[in-house]
What does this fold into?
Amino acid sequence: MGIINSFFGMILNLIFEGIALLTPVGTLGLTIIVFTVVTRLLLTPLQIKQMRTTRAMSKIQPELTRIQKKYANKKDQQSQMAYSQELQAIYKKYKISPFAGCLPLLIQLPLIYALYNVLRQPSRYISKLSEMYTQLADVLAQNVANVDTVINEVVNKVPLSSTAMYELQKLGDKVTLADKLSHFTTDQWNAMRELISPQVYDLLSNLLEAKHGFEYFIVNLVDSPSQLVANGQYLALLIPIAAGASTFIFSKITMAASKPATPANGEANPADSMMKVMNIMMPIMMGWFSYTVPNGLALYWISGNIIMMVQQIWVNKIVDKQQAVLEEQLRKDREAALAAQGVKKKKKKKKPKPEVATGEVEQKAIDEKPKKPKKTASEDETTNSTKED
It folds into this structure.
């Protein structure tokens, strides 16, 4: 993950430097939004492929069902190999990759994790913030004799988050005062103000003001909603609510666009059921996640959802055109298959009628020949008398 963190940290730093030239206020927030736009544009081809795959799998479901029925009761190795080969042939014929639906999510996870690391320790990746934290550490080290004791007292009064402690422990003996300060939240800076002299704090004020300007975007992006709510800033609850709501809306739009197929037997589609469950669980998970992590990461998630909603309109148009081509190909293939079945039926020979032996035919003709009626007694006498005359 170190290489990925460094790569995205470099991109964030370049964006930050550019925005810092335009404004010293809200720089980190604007950087996150621009970074989100860039990453979403990079992920667009994968998003198109994911949606095309989902829809295409629905369209070819009859073909897949036919193959499944064909090998339903054949569990031997040869049959299973043939089953796999026929499935692959279908996927290849219609240019479908069944695993394409997972790619955007798999690529997105390291993005989120990398951005999370950057937001938890911005001084490691963003050079301007690194210089600022180094200057803050220098001022404290030069003007506070017991600076390590003061830092420990601050941490005892306002504990570091578990993530911050983990990141500092990873540095081991290499951890510096600037590294510790980069994890300080607003509460910890306020606690430090109470422990150092006003003169020293005045020396820090200009640097802290610049730091606040960089990191403030409606709220301080280094703080988390849970910390703000604990201090009575209940409006911070809007951040996880917005994260959950935007996730829910985007999931509904994606589900409607994917249009999973309904099986021919009328039973519920397992994919449809799974998507409905995810449509409920994901917003809850993202809402809770956004409540506990720095506001900067929640901003990334919210802005990403909004951008993807707009992007979905364009993606739908592209996928609709691709689906029209696939549907036409499927129509022709299915018509050809039906025509082939009709030809086979016509070629089938009719069963011949059973042959009858010649003797039987002659006997039947004799039996069916009309017989002469027998003469009565009076007719016989008339005949005899005529002969005598």
